[in-house]
Amino acid sequence: MFESPVEEGWRYWVRWQVPVCGLIIAIPCVFALKFIRKSMTKPLLLSDLWSTHWRHLSPSWLLLYRAFAFVCCVQLLYEIVALHGPFVFFFYTQWTMALVAIYFALGTVVSAYGYWCPSRKTRSKTEEDVKLMEKDLKKNVDIVKEDTIKVQNECAQQEFQEKAGCLGTLMQMAYLAAAGASVLTDVVFWCLLVPFLLGENFQVSLLIGSIHALNAVFLLGDTALNSLSFPFGGFAYFVAFGGLYVIFQWTVHACCVNWWPYPFFELSTPWAPLWYLGLAVIHIPCYGIYALIVKAKYSLLPRLFPHAFVKSF
Predict the structure, then answer these.
(1) Would you say residue 213 lies in a domain?
(2) Where are the transmembrane segments (predicted)?
């Protein structure tokens, strides 16, 4: 039986497994943070965040879907916290669900802005330009009409090129990290924990099953509707999120908590480096699975719905 970090004190943290496991977590996180810093300079279009690829589907449906998913995620988090207390946030599952809720919160705000504000902004700018043209070009009504159409097209094109800003960037980051985290959460729970730990001390209730399934379901529904890209470089956000969770676990265990929520976090076993290496490596297929789903979206949906799904704008 392994002693807890609280029981052993500082001796628990000076064993050889600790720096090895620390390097296994720290090295990918350092590269991930460097990549994130570089990717922050790349432009992100607002239209990519709130529009859809479905020809006859209004973006308002994506807005409503994101608002509905946000409410459901918050409700699930509220119910599990009310049942078990804030202690549940020691688990990666609740971190993932909170991240999914943050994504849908940001997505709702950005969708609302993209759906309403640009049209009003474009319309007001167009009206001002029309008034100026009518004042300066009173000679020919046909010329005024032609220039009005030209101004409207230019305004629409300028709006399409509007940058997403800080809020949109955070939304994209949350989307990429939440996608990989949801796959990791559900795969570990349904393929590892349930088959091997299910018994008298571990039961799957409706709430537990829902919180380990609806995170991915809501994201997949959003992916089917949205126009967001899913670059492989987004893997860095997923890695940074996982590293932040491990840092949180090590910190609380060094301070006050005398147990690990997952047995593979235990550092006193000689197999700890292999467990941590496995945790680091499993991030790759989890993110890759979601990337393949997005790739299938752009390859299969245009064939299945050639008149409804627009592959690119």
Answers:
(1) yes
(2) 16-36, 63-83, 95-116, 173-198, 204-225, 237-262, 274-293
* The total number of structural domains that make up the chain: 1
Q: Domain limits at 223?
A: 5-114+166-300
Residue at 137 is within a domain:
no
Identify whether the C-beta of residue 223 lies closer than 8 Å to the C-beta of residue 12.
no
| 49 three-class SS | helix
Tell me if 250 sits within 8 A of 108, measured CB to CB. no
Question: Which of 67-76, 141-150, 203-212, 255-264 has the highest average model confidence (pLDDT)?
Answer: 67-76
Backbone angles phi, psi at 227, to 5 degrees: -115, 15
Tokens (6 digits) for 4: 């807890």
Q: What is the pLDDT of residues 103-147, one digit of tens each?
A: 999 999 999 988 777 544 444 344 444 444 555 545 544 444 455
Q: Give pTM, 2 decimals.
A: 0.83
Question: Is 221 part of any domain?
Answer: yes
Q: How far apart are CA 50 and CA 107, in angstroms?
A: 8
Please indicate, yes or no, if residue 196 is contained in any of the structural domains: yes
Partner residues linked to 202 by β-bridges = 199
Question: How far is 42 from 29, CA to CA, in rounded Å?
Answer: 20
Give 258-305 as a DSSP string: -S-SSGGG-SSSTTHHHHHHHHHHHHHHHHHHHHHHHHHHHHHHHHHS
With tokens 């940058």, the residue in question is 163
- Backbone φ, ψ for residue 213 (5° rounding): -135, -40
Phi-psi category of residue 162: left, alpha or beta, with phi > 0 → left and psi -120 to 50 → alpha: beta
Length of the chain: 313
Per residue in 91-100, pLDDT tens? 999 999 999 9
Q: How far apart are CA 196 and CA 48, in angstroms?
A: 42
